[in-house]
């Protein structure tokens, strides 16, 4: 399922672009763009604007999240930023500070 995992001891700063599923366990700052899935692990800290197909957050994100299909905010996560996606799920206990906009692919095409 996951081709690449950025380990907990990795710190990355800059623009990240990838095509296959990725899990972040360390610290990332900058911008993230993907034509696949992004998984942010419980101990990960991401300070970036994110664009991907699906974004699953268990750690900390400071930045806006835009997904083509789905954003999942798990109970352990903290998100400070806006979320935009056709489907958004938030588990009880998650911390979300921002604006949530649920887009519809059908309406966007009109």
Query: What proportion strand?
Result: over 45%
How do the helices and strands follow one another from N- to C-terminus?
Answer: EEEEEEEEEEEEEH
* Cα-to-Cα separation, first versus last residue: 34 Å
Alpha plus pi helix count: 1
- What characteristic shape results from the CA principal axes? globular
- Share of residues in helices: under 10%
Radius of gyration: 13 Å
Tell me what the structure shows.
With 110 residues, this protein is mainly beta. It is 5% helix and 61% strand. It has 1 helix and 13 strands; from the N terminus they run E-E-E-E-E-E-E-E-E-E-E-E-E-H. Strands 1, 2, 3, 4, 5, 6, 7, 8, 9, 10, 11, 12 and 13 form a 13-stranded parallel β-sheet that branches.
Task: Fill in the keyword field for this structure.
5% helix; globular; 110 residues; 61% strand; mainly beta
């Amino acid at each position: 399922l996951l081709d690449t995992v950025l380990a907990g001891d990795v710190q990355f700063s800059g623009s990240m672009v990838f095509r296959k599923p990725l899990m972040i366990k360390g610290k990332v700052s900058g911008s993230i763009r993907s034509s696949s899935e992004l998984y942010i692990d419980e101990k990960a800290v991401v300070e970036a604007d994110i664009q991907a197909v699906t974004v699953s957050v268990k750690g900390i994100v400071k930045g806006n999240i835009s997904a083509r299909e789905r954003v999942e905010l798990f109970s352990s996560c903290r998100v400070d930023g806006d979320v935009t996606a056709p489907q958004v799920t938030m588990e009880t206990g998650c911390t979300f500070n921002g604006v949530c906009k649920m887009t519809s692919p059908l309406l966007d095409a009109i």
